[in-house]
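okkk here we go again. third time trying to get the flavin-adenine dinucleotide bound version out, last two times i messed up the smiles copy paste (missing a bracket lol). double checked this time i swear
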Amino acid sequence: MKKKIAIIGSGIAGLTLAGLINSNSNFEFVVYEKEDVLSLEEGYGIQLSTNSVSILNKIGFNQKNKNEKYHPLKLDFYSIDCNKICDLDLSKFNSANDKYTTLKRSVLIKFLKDKLLSNSIIFRKKIKNIEQIDKKVNINFIDGSSDQVDFLIVSDGVFSSTKLAIEKSFLKPTYYGAIAIRSQIPNKNILNLNSNNISLIMGSNSHLVLYPINQKKELNLVCIIRKKNEDDVSINNILENTILKENKNLFNLFKGELKSWPIYITNKPVKSIHKNVLYIGDAFHTFPPTMAQGASQSIEAANEIFKLIIEDNPDLQNKYFIDRRKKTNLIIKRSKFNYFGFHISNPLLKSLRNKLLKYLVKNEKFTSHYLGKIYK
Ligand SMILES: Cc1cc2nc3c(=O)[nH]c(=O)nc-3n(C[C@H](O)[C@H](O)[C@H](O)COP(=O)(O)OP(=O)(O)OC[C@H]3O[C@@H](n4cnc5c(N)ncnc54)[C@H](O)[C@@H]3O)c2cc1C
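finally!!
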C-alpha cells in the first residue's frame, strides 16, 4: 500500500513538498489548510537564491512564468544618502539553469498550486490533536473529521498552532525588536538607484532593500526598522523619525500603499516528540529577514524531507533534524551579523564598515565562504 503524507499549511514550504511528492507516484499526500482559499496576497516580493531555485527547477519552475520573474546580477550597497559604496556580483553563484531570482510571492504560490490536482488541498482544516497508533499518526481535526497517515509534516508558519496542539512544550516566537514596511513602486520613483540590481540602503538603525520583481521591472521595497516595542504607531510617523530624518529625498519611495508588521523569530528549531512528525519552513524555525533566506530555506527543508522519505531512511527524523539545524544555525549567525552591520549608527564605525565591505565583496574566499556555503 502507498504511504500517505499529510502536510499542514499551504505556504511556500507545504506547497513545495506537495509539488515534490506529486512528482513521485509511490506516495499519496494531502495538504490541509486552515483558510478558505490560498493566500495570494499581491505585492509581496521574495528573493530566491540558487539553492532553492535549483530545487524548484526540478518541478519545472524554469519553464514557467518567464515574464513574471527577474534575475538580478548584482547587489548594490548604498549609504543612506544614496551614495554607492560597492557591489556584490550575485551571478557568480548562478549556473546556466539556476539563477538568483526575484518575484512576487503570489507568482510562486500559484506556480506550486497549479502543479497539484484541485482536490490535493483541503481548506478550512485545523488540527485538534494527534495520536500515535503503531507506526501511524491519527489526526483529529477541530471539525470532528480525522485522517490516518504515515508522516505528518507541519508547515503552518511562524505562529504554528499545530505545534502547540502536538508538542508538550515549546517556546513561543518572540518580537525581534524591529518592524518591516513594504511597498511596491514604479521604476521612475527610484532616484539614482540602479533598477536592474538589488539595492541595499543602510541607515542608522534601519535599512531598505529594493529589487525588480518581473520583466516590467516593477519594484518591491522592504524596510527593516528597529523599534523597541510592538506598540501601534503610524507608519508615516515611524518613517519621519527614522529613514526620512536621515534623507528626505527617500520620500519618493513611500508614495504608494504601505504595509507594516512586527518581525517575530522563533528561538530554537523544533524536533517533535513523535517520530513521524516533522516541521518545515517558518514552523521549524523563523529567521530574521537579513539574509533573505526564509522562503529558500523552506524550499530546501521540503526537499530534504522528500529525499529522506523516498529513500525510506530508517533514521529519518534524526537525520533531518541534525542537518537542518546545522544549516539553520549558520543562517541565524549570518542574519544577526548582517543586521548589526546594516544598522550601524556611529559615523566612525560606518566609515570602517564601508571600507571593509568594499574589500570583502571582491574577496573570492570570503564571498564563497559567507554566501557560497548558503547558496549551494
Ligand atoms: C519582511 C520579510 C521579508 C522577507 N523576505 C524574504 C525574501 O526576500 N526571501 C526569502 O526567502 N524569504 C523572505 N521572507 C521569509 C519568507 O516569506 C518566509 O520564511 C516563508 O514564506 C515561510 O513559508 P512557510 O510556508 O513556512 O509559512 P507561511 O508562508 O506562513 O505559510 C503557512 C501556511 O499555513 C497556514 N496555516 C497557519 N496555521 C494553520 C493551521 N493551524 N492549520 C492549517 N494551516 C495553517 C497559513 O494560512 C499559510 O497558508 C521574508 C519575511 C519577512 C518577515
